[in-house]
Amino acid sequence: xxxxxxxxxxxxxxxxxxxxVADDEDDIRALVCLAVKRAGGVVxxxxxxxxxxxxxxxxxxxxxxxxxxxMPGATGLEVCTALRDDPVTAGVRVxxxxxxxxxxxxxxxxxxxxxxxxxxxxxxxxxxxxxRALTAGQPA
Length: 140
Hints:
The structure is a single chain. This protein is α/β, with parallel strands linked by helices and about 140 residues long. It has helices at about 1-15, 25-40, 50-60, 75-85, 105-110, 125-135, and strands spanning about 20, 40-45, 65-70, 95-100, 115-120. It has a single domain (about 15-135), classed as 3-Layer(aba) Sandwich (Rossmann fold), CATH 3.40.50. It has six helices and five strands, in the order αβαβαβαβαβα. The chain is globular and about 35 Å long.
């Protein structure tokens, strides 16, 4: 019995990180999904708007949500705030992506509870590193 329990616990701790991706631009969403896979993660949901992202995060309970700041339905900032306000999803790591990357924009993202903020356009390798760091529980 202990061997079975140990095997189950060991299996769950080595499971690949589960990631929700949300961006209203198809090409960017596909690029983020590619980066998640290169980082060793699994995309559990890839959606085009904030309302769908919030629903997916609540249903899938991912390790990480990669959110575009400017999306229809709800912004990435609104989704991030909602995730942080819900005790069930408060521990989901959040990476915000945005073409707006002034110090004020980044500050608003971090104030909303994001763990990291990455400016568009981004290098896939940089996004892969961010995803690895966030899913390993390290600061980005």
